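Ticket closed. Logging final result for Ubiquinone biosynthesis accessory factor UbiK.
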Amino acid sequence: MLAPKAFLDALSDQASRLFSGDTAQPRSELESQFKALLQSGFSKLELVSREEFDSQMVVLARTRARLEALEAKVEEMEARLNPAAAE
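Final structure:
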């Protein structure tokens, strides 16, 4: 994974090369090349999609809820096994 500064420097260098050409390129060509440049840079940052992030948040919330339920059951069982400690 690239450090943020290295990523921005590389992106800046590539963008400079893209826009410094002697011949004027059509806007659509520039947009397509810049989009490819950004996608290449973002892939090096190991980012996740919004959908993947949201699905992992759902899994995490479910896991936390189950863990809290298990902790409550363990506390209840410990209280049954050792009633003097619960008082």
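The CA atoms of residues 7 and 13 lie 10 Å apart. No further action required.
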